[in-house]
């Protein structure tokens, strides 16, 4: 906690001072970000830093492995789906980016299969990407590919699964079809800093 509060003091004394007019404008006029980024909760992958964005420029939702579940309205809690609904229907974002990354712990857990530890939520959450794992395991050269390469391939496939799942939301599909909304998949390499389209 001490480290966080010290960081806040640095923020308040430097970044806030330089950008307080922008914060005042955002507080007064509200947010109108043109883009939404769905990213992993991994501490090494901060979308605002990767895309060098100022406050108010991107609407971000982060979860384990940057996954988008399929459209499934019911009485359960759906954090990512609720964020999508707000960003698309209320904020009218014009693009949605799914941002996968290298060395993703969630993807590694998915590729290893259910572990011996107690996971009340992670295993069922990662089921969203089970078709990504299957594609990697069914690839012609899967038996000769090492685990790290399989995980990297699965990171890319998981982004593709999330992009497909986005189109199961009727109000997203409608906006994509009429050109009001674009979807993109990206993969960030934590070690090299490289960003590539998926």
UniProtKB/TrEMBL annotation:
Its cofactor is Zn(2+). Pfam families: Pro_CA (PF00484). The keyword Cell membrane does not apply. Binds 1 zinc ion per subunit. CDD domains: beta_CA_cladeB (cd00884). SUPFAM superfamilies: beta-carbonic anhydrase, cab. GO terms for biological process: carbon utilization. Belongs to the beta-class carbonic anhydrase family. This is Carbonic anhydrase. It comes from Acidocella aminolytica 101 = DSM 11237.
């Amino acid at each position: 906690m001490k480290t966080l509060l010290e960081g806040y003091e640095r923020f308040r004394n430097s970044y806030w001072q330089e950008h307080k007019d922008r914060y005042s404008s955002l507080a007064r006029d509200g947010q109108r970000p043109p883009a939404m980024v769905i990213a992993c909760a991994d501490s090494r992958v901060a979308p605002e830093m990767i895309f060098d964005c100022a406050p108010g420029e991107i609407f971000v939702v982060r979860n384990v492995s940057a996954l988008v579940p399929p459209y499934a309205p019911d009485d359960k809690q759906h954090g990512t789906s609720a964020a999508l609904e707000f960003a698309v229907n209320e904020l009218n974002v014009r693009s949605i980016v799914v941002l996968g990354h290298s060395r993703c712990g969630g993807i590694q857990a998915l590729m290893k299969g259910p572990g011996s530890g107690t996971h009340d939520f992670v295993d069922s959450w990662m089921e969203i990407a089970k078709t990504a794992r299957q594609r990697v395991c069914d690839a012609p050269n899967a038996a000769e590919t090492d685990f790290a390469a399989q995980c990297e391939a699965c990171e890319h496939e998981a982004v593709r699964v999330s992009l497909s799942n986005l189109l199961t939301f009727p109000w997203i599909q409608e906006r994509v079809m009429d050109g009001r909304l674009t979807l993109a998949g990206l993969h960030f390499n934590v070690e090299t800093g490289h960003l590539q389209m998926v």
